[in-house]
Amino acid sequence: MNLSTRHWWPDLPMRHWARGYGRDTLLRDAVAAVIVTLMLIPQSLAYAQLAGLPPEVGLYASVAPLLAYALLGTSRVLAVGPVAVVSLMTAAAVGEHAAAGSAHYLAVAITLAFLSGLILLAMGLLRLGFLAHFLSHPVIAGFIAASGLLIAASQLKTLLGVSAGGHNLVEMLAALWAQRGHVHGLTLGIGAASLAFLFWVRRGLQPLLRRLGVPPRAAELGAKAGPVAAIMGATLFTWAVDGGAQGVKLVGAVPQGLPPFTLPLWDQALWQSLLVPALLISVVGFVESVSVGQTLAAKRRQRIEPDQELVALGGSNLSAAFTGGFPVTGGFARSVVNFDAGAQTPAAGVYTAVGILLASLLLTPALFHLPQATLAATIVVAVLSLVDVGILRRTWTYSKADFTAVLATLVATLAVGVESGLVAGVGVSLALHLWRTSQPHIAEVGQVPGTEHYRNVLRHQVITHPQVLALRMDESLYFANARALEDRINAAVAQRPALRHVVLQCSAINDIDASALDSLEAIDQRLRDAGLQLHLSEVKGPVMDKLQRSDFLQRLSGRVFLTHHQAAVSLASAGD
Amino acid sequence: MNLSTRHWWPDLPMRHWARGYGRDTLLRDAVAAVIVTLMLIPQSLAYAQLAGLPPEVGLYASVAPLLAYALLGTSRVLAVGPVAVVSLMTAAAVGEHAAAGSAHYLAVAITLAFLSGLILLAMGLLRLGFLAHFLSHPVIAGFIAASGLLIAASQLKTLLGVSAGGHNLVEMLAALWAQRGHVHGLTLGIGAASLAFLFWVRRGLQPLLRRLGVPPRAAELGAKAGPVAAIMGATLFTWAVDGGAQGVKLVGAVPQGLPPFTLPLWDQALWQSLLVPALLISVVGFVESVSVGQTLAAKRRQRIEPDQELVALGGSNLSAAFTGGFPVTGGFARSVVNFDAGAQTPAAGVYTAVGILLASLLLTPALFHLPQATLAATIVVAVLSLVDVGILRRTWTYSKADFTAVLATLVATLAVGVESGLVAGVGVSLALHLWRTSQPHIAEVGQVPGTEHYRNVLRHQVITHPQVLALRMDESLYFANARALEDRINAAVAQRPALRHVVLQCSAINDIDASALDSLEAIDQRLRDAGLQLHLSEVKGPVMDKLQRSDFLQRLSGRVFLTHHQAAVSLASAGD
What we know:
The structure is a homodimer.
Chain A: H1 15-18, H2 23-50, H3 55-60, H4 64-72, E1 80-81, H5 84-95, H6 103-125, H7 137-160, H8 169-178, H9 185-211, H10 216-224, H11 226-241, H12 268-299, H13 306-322, E2 329-330, H14 332-340, H15 347-363, H16 372-384, H17 390-398, H18 400-415, H19 418-438, E3 442-447, E4 454-456, E5 468-473, H20 479-495, E6 501-505, H21 514-529, E7 533-537, H22 541-548, H23 552-555, E8 560-561, H24 564-575
Parallel strand pairs in A: 5-6, 6-7, 7-8
Antiparallel strand pairs in A: 1-2, 3-4, 3-5
Helix pairs in contact in A: 2-11, 2-14, 2-15, 2-16, 4-13, 4-15, 5-6, 5-12, 6-12, 6-13, 7-8, 7-16, 7-18, 7-19, 9-10, 9-11, 9-16, 12-14, 17-18, 18-19, 19-20, 20-21
Subcellular location (chains A, B): Membrane
Pfam families (chains A, B): STAS, Sulfate_transp
Organism (chains A, B): Hydrogenophaga borbori
């Protein structure tokens, strides 16, 4: 087997594609870059607004991170930049330390990106990518759905033209209700029209383009650029009616120029309090990025290297921190568009970065009259597709434990906030997993007549022997479930005075830890004190190796049998 | 099978032994009670001193709890009262809120017993006894050994006749070092002599008694009463030399009388801050009590009911709180003595309670001249037998993960304190367990020539097919390890262009949670996109039931085979 070679310090993944980069690949990458750029401009502005930051910060965060990822990342098509959930988490974390819109707020966001970058980089170099696996899918699904609802709710104030705050759904809705008398009509009109247009774009634009004779593929991609049309239309309309003078909140003056060079704040107290949010942002960002990266890579039989992805995302966030940006990760929508548009290599990301750079140099004056409500509508339409309420029904049908984990995450996120929701979800899912494995399935087995097979006495007509108790444990023996075996054997021995032998069939036991070994010794000792013997059968090789490193096998009252049938035959005849 | 019947509200276990209680049983119980009483008097005084409480509180805590346990407990021989580790934990918890020796200190200790009683009772009624299983044996062993060292260190100040404090080993030794110039010679002499005598009693008294013609069994039991001789000797000596006047700290005036009626403090802030210590004390007490109870019950083919034990210990602690006592549990040494002395039923506990009651009514004036250093010596000798350093060597040999858990518990307990040590130990052992199961063993399997058996390609000479990848997962599929399977399959598919089929042999998979189901769907989708099929073989019944509640099987690109051999034969021939 040709295992992939591993290095402690990974060589740049770039070398896999940079060599042999030809004109055909360049053309495909460039076409993809144009489409992604058109999609990213409104998204970047909108997610900066969601994070409570000035719009140009969204553009800055879409330049350097794309370059860093192109250099370090292992996915050919992942597009890195601001994404909805991470922007919401940024707003929640930074809002604890600074007022939205202040210079300090931006400085804290930059520091958060820096810390998140350091954490991702460290996790990558220490090969801790597996830690992300402890976010179970129900927790992720519940968290993403709740975040989508929270994000949509957070944009309502902008759509209605009022001021309101809140970190969870209850606070947000209460703040909106308090402002119900101050809804701004024109803003609401622009917001509602933008929403309607964007929802129609998702469903209706592609069929329309095809009816107009546009080839299917071009129609599909053209529809992705629909939000740009919404932005142009809304900007023109607001300019024409002078909406700003009538009180419609505008994006306003956006500085023209290259991303600035920035540094994080060196403030120990701030770092300490940002540590947990930065860790959660890192893990959520990593999980989102790796899921989409793996899905897209597999479609072309490529693969990504999760630990190297951590390094790449770490580099991307550090680069964001040094160029006036905020926390970023690999986005789902933009990566899929990049893939569908035919991007072949991370060079497409480089061209996209150049496109965004041109936009931030040349386009920003044109954004002056863009209403914030239109950006809010862009966000609402994007995130509502994340809200998958079906997960509740599906997990309810499949497994009550998983359903509980989804529900706990959903409720905690909506009722308390993003960070508490995530922590609660991980806690509940770990607790449920431990609880399940601490209640192992232990079957008493007997011989299926005429065979050498031994099956559960409760499910099959089998032969048992009054002096022999044969138990099969369907779980590895470890500290949380070893007592269950003790209890089961104690109960059986107390109930059956005729019992002389207990045989433990170990075919499903993949490991025995020190606690379980102590339990086995205690069981053996108690059985011996009561005049019984303990035997083992079908012990797996690695488990046997481990037992031989202790003195358990020397002290065992009974024997170790290769097959369970040998044990049954030998003990039944000895007992007669 | 005759399963034991279970009730939501358990009937009193007393009925099992009270009916048919005859003169013979009464005699045996009474003899055991006399011996246990002789052992308990010095122990109760000493553990009260260890907990920072007046000596009579130790006697009070040995009366009502014994009665409550006799009524509610399921062990025939467990002796409940103050024990070393719980007394140390009490001192640590109460010391945070009150000065040792003050009336408030006793009131807080009573409140702690009350809270601990409520927690145990609630855990019992909710059948949460399994929670104690999450204290792994390495953690318990490390904690008990470290506590033994801490307790011994805490008694050094009394043996040296100086004042010193501290909650961990470093603080204690530093405080003693600062007092090195103030060692009280006579106290040290009495302490050293008591220590030497008590160590000799453990080893030398029994052989001496036998050489003097005492029958073996009486010699064994007589040796257990050795500490009483130490106490009498030291008291007489101190009285004769008027040690009190020379600065030897004495037990002093102990109130004569029945245990008082007391109530816990109703102080919400105090309850909140005592909640965690009370929980830890409850869990540690329960674990100690159940271990000894199970060991002794099994020797007579009896059994104990862990959830009912929680109720009984809860009642014992509540009764301690109402009679001027402090947290109690089933003690190891006293229960073994009770068992060895021939106790047959919990009535022995009732007689012991009467014995202690008589002592607290009549004997307390005789304790005036008892030096505290002798009680300290009693404690040191008792706890040093708990310090099992061999656990480090044994776990090192057996399993590095278990060794890490012992070491973490030991170091945290000694360096920080009892509560931190316990929490650190549980955290480390859970983390290591999750880490291990998140790195599952996944073997590629092939056919053993001439058989229908499929084994690991790395360990056996087997036949594989270039178009078929057969993997066996040796762990239940759950959120923390599902990605490992995804990664493994992604890697294999990227490396082998000829691959057409992936077969997952599910014989060792006892459960598939919702995350793992999502992973299987993602794997299936990616394989399908790359032109491959995913098949399953040997899926267990309960797992199949669960899969059928989702739409996974309808969407699966491949098939589900009953045996792995059928899969291999069918796919190899289809591929040709």
